Amino acid sequence: MKRQLLALAALTVATGAMAQSSSVTLFGVADVSVAHLSTSGKSVTGLANGGNSSSRLGFRGVEDLGGGLKAGFWLEGGVTVDDGAAAGFKFDRRSTLSLMGNFGELRLGRDKTPAYQNLETFHAFADAGMGAINGHSLISGSAAGTPEGSNPKRVSNSISYLLPKFGGVYGQVTHSFGEQADNNSLSSNTGVRLGYAAGALNVAGAYGLVRGGTAAASVDYKTFNLGASYKLGAFTPMVLVASDRGADKRIDLYSFGLKMALGQGELRAAYTMFEDKKQNDADSQRLALGYGYALSKRTEIYATVGHIKNDGKATRKLGSSLSPTPNVGKKLTGYEIGLRHNF
Q1: Residue 225 class from Cβ within 10 Å (0-12 exposed, 13-18 middle, 19+ buried)?
Q2: Phi, psi values for residue 79, rounded to 5°
Q3: How confident is the model at residue 5 (pLDDT cuts 50, 70, 90)?
């Protein structure tokens, strides 16, 4: 009996030690809005997902391995609040395993690309809702042979190295494997990001290369972007310049944004231009205005209005999940009022 009690006590102590050295967190975002969008000859009204932040559900954890070394995992998948759809749920937003220490972080799995992170960081609405930057895969969202478009948001089968914090300098190098037996570089993606954030200033540049096409005739899609923001009291102006090139196509993006603390919330504004350098009369201009009111540290009610003007050969649309594709050369206007809760 004494031996059993000693064994039970030892197990209890060991379990307590594990609990102290490791942690697992359930987290997520629930975001839904009432939205209306209209363009020439058609309109739609309903509930839209992710008007302020993409709705998601995830698990993450860290274990202290000792000697300054830690292991971590992150599993995160998108959800739709309007219909509660759960069929086919998968951790497609992020699925990574990491080793972290004074050397930085080695991260394996599915994650955001370095270039896409700049698009999110230096835009007043990031990449969610009516004002979303929509700056990824400007050439094609389904370019032949690419993993997920000419400049995807995320890539699978990737290995990344993230710099440790060092005097405000931050950076990341990522390579995703194409895993094609006949040509291992096909469908691969390589990206790098380097930035500096200290005090009011944040500035970063990024580059990405996606190998598409076929094993016999590959196509390289390249993206470049540079963004900056500077906090001036209640104001945070930001600017972003980006360019996607490949397959004899080139789309440039110029974005100017502003965030301003106002009352118990934040005013947001962004003006974005899309310029097609290989085709005449195919540019677009978008303006978005919004305000988010903080009900608490985790809950916000928000309103956004967006308008996009397409030239004669352009069909770009707004970022809302309800957004219809306008007819060629037509304008599109939308607005939404929504609620976002982080947990």
Answers
A1: buried
A2: -130, 160
A3: very low
